[in-house]
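Schema walk-through. Below, the input block comes first and the output block second. Nothing else is stored per chain. Lengths vary across the set, and this one has 547 residues.
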Amino acid sequence: MARNPAGRWRNTTWKQFHKSVAALAAGLWRAGLRPGDYVAVMLPNSLRWEVAQHAVYRIGGVVVGLDRNDPADRLADLFAHFKAKALILDDRQLLDRIPAATLASLRLVLTDTESMPALEAGTARSLPDLSAVSPEQPATLIFTSGTTGRPKALVYSHRQLTLAIASILPILAAVPDQAHTVCWLPLANPFQRMTNWCAMAANWKSFMVPDPARILTEVRAIRPHFLVGVPRFYEKLHSEIHRRLARLPGRLQSTTRWAQQVGGRYWRAALLGDRVTWPLKYQYRLADRLVLRRVRRGLGGRLRFFISGSAPLSEPLLEAFAALGWPILEAYGISENIIPIAMNAPGACRPGSVGRPLRPNTVRIAEDGEILVKSPGVSAIVADTQADGFWRTGDLGRLDDEGFLRITGRKSDVFKLSTGRKIVPRILEEALGRIEGVAHCVAAGHNRKCVVALLNVPEEQWHRLQARHHGPEGAYRYLREQAQSACAHLPDYSRPAAVAVVRDTFSPQNGELTPNLKLRRDFVLKKHDPILAELYRCMETEDESRK
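--- output ---
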């Protein structure tokens, strides 16, 4: 579903969708596109995106989703990986960001999919029969996130896409027919596209939200049964809920805190499979009626659970949402395998894990803790580099006694201090990320004698901290004290000896984040190396003055 020009939600039937796909496919075919041709799509989240995607599939082409917010240099890097024969977009100004060589080689540039000529009988007969498109033919090309360098281009077949859908749907079997879902993450990202494919296979209703900034407003009208998102979304949503609850009168705030505590105990017992005692059941029903149910109505009242991917969530955040009656099901995948590796399920969820491995994946842990996966979903482009049929994910983790996979870090992120101690940044950064006002954090210290941390506190949050803690010095002192407190449970050598504050807003446009909002650690460390160098210089000066 999408909003019409009057702003009302408009239904699209399968018959209408099929007709639109057939018409556009005919137009693409008439323009000279043929099976195997690469078609770049740079549309906002909309029905047009889905029509364009399936029209390309209809002629046997290969879909390449590109983020329309990417800067020109990144787009040039992406276009260098494939030879595009057509480009579909909705804004001619985007053409200014496309490399001249790419534009010159395009057979078709389409800026309005709705203006394609109607399907003609002769053209229909000239289209290839769907049965002629082999399941092994390439269907889509996606790019790795580029967290550690230049993105890689990966091609997946129609068979691999259907295997991915078939692996996910049993996890979501409890979602009813015609359930409401929301398409709001960029469709260049396979995470959102996978959700849409599942929606088509399971007969759910997908509501198209082109502006991600409006997601919290839109869900109240959409009333989704479940919602997918990335960690940053859940952090913002939690802050918004906390902000609204803080406005309540003092007596109601006490009731709210009690209700959340009861909800936390109830869901912790339910998620872990423990027996829920009668007194706790009674308390939960009361807490739900007085507070929790009212909070859930803020997102439509039908939301059963969230799904999170792309990056890890902190356990306190998971527990906070579970206490409200909204479990967040964390999933785990890698770009090199189109089939998600593992996923929590309703009724089979363990906070802090990414769930049990999904069929047909086989997961094992190497001696050094690296997660290995064998799967028919691994891209043929990287399959030759596998060892014994297993792809090395680069992530560190372990399988617990119940078979749930727990991610402990990224192998390439681990660094050594000059003392020889190994530091796993994720553990430290998760602790620092819980500090109020901190949007992102990066631990550093390779070949140094101690660990330091960059705390990203956007300008708006920095002003709030200054107001609460009596100016810049008070705000910085607060962050330093909170950093020590948050990391008190860690060994001495892995605690940050000092912190630096970066007030720029991290974003994909500025390079600190990938399009799916993962932190690009190497880029951040390189960009802010002068700050880190000054931090260490000040520490050395202080050490010298003490001697």
